[in-house]
Amino acid sequence: MKAFLRSFFFLLFIFPLNLLAQDPLPSWNEGATKQSIIDFVKAVTTEGSADFVPIPERIAIFDNDGTLWSEQPLYFQFLFAVDQVKVLAPKHPEWKTKEPFKSVLAGSMKGALAGGEKSLLAIMMATHAGMTTDVFNASVKEWIESAQHPKFKKLYTECVFQPMLEVLTYLRANGFKTFIVSGGDIDFMRVWAERVYGIPPEQIVGTKMKLKYQVVDGVPSLLRTPALSLLDDKEGKPVGIHEHIGRIPIAAFGNSDGDFQMLEYTTSASGKRLGLIVHHDDADREFAYDRQSKIGTLNKGLDEGPKRGWIIISMKNDWKKIFSFE
Amino acid sequence: MKAFLRSFFFLLFIFPLNLLAQDPLPSWNEGATKQSIIDFVKAVTTEGSADFVPIPERIAIFDNDGTLWSEQPLYFQFLFAVDQVKVLAPKHPEWKTKEPFKSVLAGSMKGALAGGEKSLLAIMMATHAGMTTDVFNASVKEWIESAQHPKFKKLYTECVFQPMLEVLTYLRANGFKTFIVSGGDIDFMRVWAERVYGIPPEQIVGTKMKLKYQVVDGVPSLLRTPALSLLDDKEGKPVGIHEHIGRIPIAAFGNSDGDFQMLEYTTSASGKRLGLIVHHDDADREFAYDRQSKIGTLNKGLDEGPKRGWIIISMKNDWKKIFSFE
């Protein structure tokens, strides 16, 4: 009987109070940054409020590299490309003597990138074009399920930011549709993003190769040709947003100057808007870089962002936890 | 008391039975075509069934012109372009003497199209490029809310097929996401498709102009440049599907040979698939045309479709009602 009474009181008093007090963003430290996200969501979801936004217009967009997962020491997709050169090498005997492939196969990233952008493009095209989408997707799947991050010694899909996963869940619980808008290859992300972020393929916007429809022996497929349909970075991001989403999002999360135009496009429109920039300032738990970094350069955004009302998220101060494996 | 008892019996026996017997497709005549749609939906939504498809993969695609609304005597978007030439003429004095504009302004469609594809392209580019997406959308909105169909004397958005609206609702009630995949301009459709079909902008795939992001006096906008990013017709449709949706739909509805590849791509994949072609064979209630028509040519689909298991919908025999205004 005592146990029953205890359960009864627990259910009556403790449980509901606990529910009411449930924190939607437990990995965020209390403070202005966390509060600004919660205040925004309350404003746009409160019926009768001047800032109320109907559910179909609750669109939030997220950059991927450096915003939802890490991007150091190199963009993970480039690390995939390097590994792919090794996988494909037996089919390309000429790579043994041809740069940048020769250096990649010898394990020298410095030599591989000596040729600058041209070398980078050669590596990307050799590993991202000339095959069907099915073959490409299978190679991404195999890699993402086995390759490990050099610093964290974890699968790349474990190097996602726990506080951002909470933001995705919190927004969706409040009627938002969440999209990725990334400079990364659209299909590279689609292979694992639904499982890791809960974002389905049709809500992923990224850099796209021109595709060619072909039917071989009665079997249709799409060939990834070595030409870009869209470079979804900088000025390309608002283009990708309009092409895929067709209306202006009300919230945007980025981390580098590659996200500047996406934040500008989102926050310049009328009505309540939210723009945020993840600042990588935690060398102990992740990496610290901004103005001088070649990967994820954040310079203009640090200066102009605050003037435009964008919130700078300090990973060091605002995030209690960065990765779930900590 | 008698009234109460009557209500009680009504609620207990009549109401539930009525609900169970409710016809999801009331504008469809009973028969094999209607049954094939219902059987497909039952098969993919019955848990434990060999054909069961989880909700995120329940993607259905619909061509627009000739499938969801009429396309005769000319594609409605082309009729918009013709009206737009008249609206824009004051800003283009040179059109008074320059074909195909001279003929359009004189009301001669025959003269306007005498130059074939080149004339058509000139009219489309003059009315669909060189302005921002906002300006273009506003011109579509004004037109679609006022212009009338020459035969039906109704707004174009009233010339939508009631049986197809029922299919859209029926599929969505069964966990499907419905997409348009059309040769029409993506933004032309987005202006009114959410209101008319319940399909939001992010679920519309269409022909796309290359966009250019620009910031004028601090205001961002997207310029529609006179170049195509994607011609979403024939071989372009599977490309548009992959770009925007990222997985193969399980059901596709089309009406012309422009939809052949989209039907082929959808129905060739493994697992239960549904392909349907709307055949315009009702000259009394709508229009009758197929193999010989320049608009909405249906030739290959009529021959090959049935061999591939695609269902040919006879508007005359399968549809009780074509338009809601009948």
Automatic annotation (TrEMBL), chains A, B:
Alphabetized PANTHER family for the sequence: PHOSPHOSERINE PHOSPHATASE (PTHR43344)
Top-rank taxon: Bacteria
Swiss-Prot/TrEMBL keywords: Signal
Species per Swiss-Prot/TrEMBL record: Solitalea canadensis (strain ATCC 29591 / DSM 3403 / JCM 21819 / LMG 8368 / NBRC 15130 / NCIMB 12057 / USAM 9D) (Flexibacter canadensis)
Xref: InterPro entries: HAD-like_SerB, HAD-like_sf, HAD_sf
Signal peptide: 1-21
Listed name of the protein: Phosphoserine phosphatase
